[in-house]
Design goal:
rod-shaped
């Protein structure tokens, strides 16, 4: 191993075929940098270099499902008798085209819907606000914003 180090000790890098050096060689005794010359184009920043390190979603929708599992379900609060009676009266007096704001329980939490009443289905006990079906049993509160006419 010592022999190899001695053999390489006297070697110096030299530029061959470079227009700036015009064929001049570095003398053996002169101090020259030991770093090899860098070919043109290497070492320059490439505009798309970071693109290879960008994350990608191998499973589409996976993180949405994980965040949905992290959500703590909200417990449902039962209506009192007076609130249930007032809600029944309001539903009985609704007409198609009335604009309402409805708070209802769905999927482990309370949601709000606001819009025009498109249908009141007494047989199946559903209230349709635009294209959203809300069962009467899920409604927490209902507020009439604008009457139809």
């Amino acid at each position: 191993m010592a022999r190899e180090v001695d053999v390489l000790a006297g070697l110096r890098w030299e530029e061959v075929g470079d227009a700036g050096s015009c064929g001049a060689q570095t003398a053996v005794g002169a101090e020259a940098p030991l770093d090899p010359p860098v070919p043109p184009g290497i070492g320059r920043p490439h505009p798309d270099r970071a693109r290879q390190f960008m994350p990608f979603a191998a499973l589409r929708g996976y993180y949405d499902l994980v965040h949905a599992k992290e959500a703590v379900p909200e417990s449902r609060r039962p209506l009192s008798d007076d609130e249930a009676r007032a809600l029944d009266d309001l539903i009985a007096n609704l007409d198609r085209g009335d604009v309402v704001r409805c708070r209802y329980y769905e999927g482990g939490g309370y949601r709000e819907a606001e819009g025009a009443v498109s249908q009141i289905d007494v047989t199946f006990r559903d209230l349709w606000i635009v294209r959203r079906r809300i069962p009467f049993s899920a409604i927490q509160s209902l507020e009439l914003l604008y009457p139809a006419s």
